[in-house]
Amino acid sequence: MSVPVPHAPSGGASTADLSTVALNTRIAFLVELARRLHQYGTSAARLEGAIALAAQKMSLVADVWSSPTAIIISFSDLAQGDDGLAQVTQVMRLPPGDVNLARLCEADRIADRVIGGEIELREGFRLLRLLGLPDTRRAQAGVIASYGFSAACVVGLLLHSSWADLIVAGLIGLMIGVITVRSATRPRLAVASDAISALVATTFAIMVSAFVVPLAVKSVVLAGLIVLMPGMALTTAVREISSNHLVAGVARMGGAVATLLKLTFGTVAATQLCAAFGIHAGTYVLPPLPGWADYPSLLLGAFGFAILFRAAPRDRPVVMAAVVIGYLATRWGGLISGAIPGAPFGVFLGGFLLGALANVYARFMHRPGAVIREPGIILLVPGSTGFRSVSSLFERDTTLGLDSGILLMTLLVSLVAGLLFGDLLVSPRRSL
């Protein structure tokens, strides 16, 4: 949230007048704002800061407790004296949120307009409620397509597999996108959607490799499932723990581990099922993609991630630039450190640069820094490393599993440290 405009235009309520609005109206607006920020993927620390600041502008004191599945807010009215006792407490039970940059920016803009006196509280509440409308069919189709783009990007950019791997990974991404979109309105399917997606992806990859064209099955499956990997959740969890939001961080970490287990179970079950029917992947190795394919893959993936994060059309060039900058910074950092691209120092450098750029963008554009920060780190988060670690443990390769687990923690710490140092270089002026 930004600092409100001191003078409101005619016909609206000024910031000072908000204290005269009915207490229930102010609380209802703040509760709805908290609900929307949580729904659109805001971390505990940033959500609590945003709600506390907005409440202060409305002459309220809000003690906020946020976790991945619940929010508790206690309100006190400063106009009635600050005796340290909460007058109203609101408890909300919510499902884990998902990043939606367009709606996050709109919620932030509505809050700024209400605090600045441009619109009344009741109108702001109504606009926030409208944000909860389900996605249109066009938006759902865009999300499904983004899964395919993202999977193809990973094959061309990070795994450097063959053209066949790229095409099959893209098809798997589309199938997983359909499952994910369908599960949004089906609670029973949503619980098992990760395991089902992994089962479908692995079965399809093995069958194509056995009967159509040989594939690097593990790479194809990893690319197809990349959007479901909880790398972003793991990174957010470590950020929350490092900022002393221990309950939220540990809970989010537990959810990420559960996702990894479901994905791993799906792949193992599909492999065993195919083996039981005598279906085995081809062993012939196709030539890898040429070096020039990195750049089209990067642009394709950046466009896919812009849609995946539901960025507004006006923000898509910014989101794509953030993805490109994050990847190039990480690759350059790995090269100058004498290690492979994506090594801990490269991840630290990418996080550092993106953290600082996000704060610069928020300061001068008066929009949430999440527009740059969240999509920018998507190619840096170590979700695939966590998947490899758990998969190796399932296959009883404890040495490789533990080694991958240590690398996972190293990359997580490097990325979070980079983001924190970026905040130190350019101090954030907005909660989001």
Commentary on this structure:
The protein is 65% helix and 5% strand. By secondary structure, the protein is mainly α. The protein has 3 domains: 16-130, no CATH class; 135-308, no CATH class; 309-432, no CATH class. A 3-stranded antiparallel sheet has the order 1-2-3. The longest helix is centred in the middle third of the chain and has 31 residues, at 246-276. The chain is globular, with a radius of gyration of 23 Å.
Count the DSSP helices: 16
The secondary structure category is: mainly alpha
Largest sheet features: 3 strands, antiparallel
Question: What is the quaternary state of this protein?
Answer: single chain
Strand content: 5-15%
Low-confidence stretches: 3-16
CA(first)-CA(last) distance: 6 Å
User: Rough shape?
Assistant: globular
Helix-strand topology string: HHEEEHHHHHHHHHHHHHH
What is the share of helical residues? 55-70%
Walk across the major sheet and give the strand order. 1-2-3
How many domains would you count in the coordinates?
3
Based on CA atoms alone, the radius of gyration comes out at 23 Å
Mean pLDDT value: 87
- Give the total of beta strands: 3
